[in-house]
Design a protein that fits this description.
With 337 residues, the protein is mainly alpha-helical. It has four domains: 93 residues, no CATH class; 86 residues, Annexin V, domain 1; 38 residues, no CATH class; 98 residues, Annexin V, domain 1 (Orthogonal Bundle). Helix content is 68%, strand content 0%. It contains 21 helices and no strands. Helix 2 packs across helix 6, helix 3 crosses helix 7 and helix 6 packs across helix 7. The longest helix has 20 residues. It is elongated. 22% of the residues are buried.
């Protein structure tokens, strides 16, 4: 309480402390568990006021007043007893904050500072350059929805490591959070001032490649492979999509159908466009096409992930046959006569 505490407030606090003394240690500790820190600060004022205990008890609590009219020793020890009870009930840190009138510790998002308020995409852009333990520390200080939005924007390879470390976080030092928040805020300011923004460079590169004639694609991919074989392999898996099969001549589609697993094809077609489905059915016998349609109708709904996996499997077959020279890939940019 401050120096401006009114006499009425001091009297009320003294009465409350008097009641706790009469209740005894065990009961008082249980009562204190339900007090807010502001209530405990008020109670501390009552513990420090010295005076005839019976004068502060309300008439409705005559039994308490009688009990408190005994020797004043319990009251003289009230301040020390309150400290002991608060420590035992709520911990040493809370006791120190309340009884020494120290400022209440900031919540994690308050300690993190302005960083906790930035949008998920900007925060993910900055955290993407940090170590998993730092990312876990920051996400643990955010609410669950915000943390999930940021996590989803991080590379898939680090997400499991970040979640693992988050699950290990039990306590966060406000000082450490403040330090991390200030460092990240500086990075965000630098990015903003420099006009830096997140871009999907890999996706743009894929779009550029896919709109090149197949021959030019091959030449570019060869040069990329000379510098980074892993990157080239990843680009190749995404360069050709299942929908691109619509550009192949009928004879190559027929060659592919002889290599395709019928069950995998059935799943892949569940998520295909009408154009690619028509292309496939056109190059099958009427009986085979009807059987495939019936089997697809009987399958019911499928997970999108299962459909994409099936399509990727078939694309891998296409790439293999193209590499063997058994079919010729034709892209949307190739001109045919």
């Amino acid at each position: 309480m401050t120096a401006e505490t009114t006499a009425l407030e001091r009297e009320g606090a003294q009465r409350a402390m008097a009641v706790l003394l009469v209740l005894g240690k065990d009961t008082a500790r249980e009562v204190i568990r339900h007090f807010s820190e502001q209530d405990l600060r008020r109670l501390a004022v009552g513990a420090r006021v010295k005076g005839p205990a019976e004068e502060v008890l309300p008439l409705a609590l005559q039994d308490f007043s009688t009990a408190m009219s005994a020797p004043a020793a319990p009251w003289q020890a009230a301040d020390g007893l309150l400290r002991q009870w608060v420590q035992e009930s709520l911990g040493t840190d809370t006791a120190a904050r309340v009884l020494e009138e120290l400022p209440q510790a900031p919540t994690p998002d308050e300690a993190l500072g302005p960083v906790s308020g930035v949008d998920a995409e900007a925060l993910a852009m900055v955290l993407g350059r940090e170590q998993p333990q730092t990312v876990a520390l920051v996400l643990s200080a955010l609410n669950a929805d915000k943390a999930l939005n940021v996590l989803n924007r991080l590379p898939a390879a680090v997400q499991a490591e970040v979640v693992f470390r988050m699950a290990k976080v039990e306590a966060i030092s406000p000082e450490l959070l403040k330090e991390v928040g200030q460092a990240l805020a500086a990075e965000l300011r630098a990015a903003t001032m420099g006009g830096v923004r997140k871009v999907e460079g890999r996706q743009v590169a894929l779009d550029v490649l896919r709109n090149k004639p197949v021959a030019e694609q091959g030449e570019l991919m060869k040069r990329i492979e000379e510098r980074d074989a892993d990157l080239a392999a990843e680009l190749r898996t995404k360069l050709l999509t299942f929908e691109d099969l619509v550009h192949l001549p009928d004879r190559d589609i027929q060659a592919l159908l002889r290599e395709f697993d019928t069950k995998v094809l059935m799943i892949a077609l569940k998520g295909a466009s009408p154009a690619i489905a028509a292309k496939i059915f056109k190059n099958m016998s009427s009986r085979a096409a009807d059987m495939l349609r019936d089997d697809m109708a009987a399958m019911g709904p499928l997970r999108l992930a299962d459909v994409e996996q099936a399509q990727n499997q078939l694309v891998a077959v296409v790439m293999r046959l193209a590499g063997e020279g058994r079919i010729r890939l034709i892209g949307p940019a190739d001109k045919m006569v």
